[in-house]
Amino acid sequence: MSLQDQEAPDFTLPRDGGDDVTLSAIDGPVVLYFYPRDDTPGCTKEALGFTDAVDDFAAAGVTVLGISKDTVAKHEKFRDKHGLKIALLSDSDGAVCEAYGVWVEKNMYGKTSMGIERATFLIDADGKVVREWRKVKVPGHVDEVLEAARAL
Q: What is the pTM of this model?
């Protein structure tokens, strides 16, 4: 399911720190990245990559949001442990993951299960998905997203 060139599904989700974030209320472009789970090696590398580049995204006028099904409390532990500077949103019921088509069947070591596919969406100031990355490999990903964000 591709969302490229479509209106980004709107949502309101709780974030670390206790506030709610509504996608359509954010002024300017947004990088929305979905990740499987807090404090796992790949997810930590990705979160640290976006944290390291958060000032570069801000300079480009872009807000970065990370989403997983973990609770706000788990997000806060993850944020504090690694010094993360990006908003982490909790999609505990999975509705937003479903809307973005990232809740998928995964196969690991011959065992299938449902989980979040690592994916990133670049949404322009008008709320349209202008770029999407599916089955993301972490090395080099943040730089690629930043380059696309700067080109908006």
A: 0.95
Domain count, the chain: 1
Question: What domain range is 141 assigned to?
Answer: 29-150
* DSSP letter assigned to residue 9: P
Partner residues linked to 13 by β-bridges: 21
Question: Mean pLDDT per segment of 10 residues, for the chain of length 152 residues?
Answer: 93 96 97 97 97 97 98 97 98 97 91 94 97 96 97 94
97 is catalytic: no
Burial track 131-149 (b if 16+ CB lie within 10 A, e otherwise): bbbeebebeebbeebbebb
Could you say which of 21, 23, 32, 43 is catalytic? 43
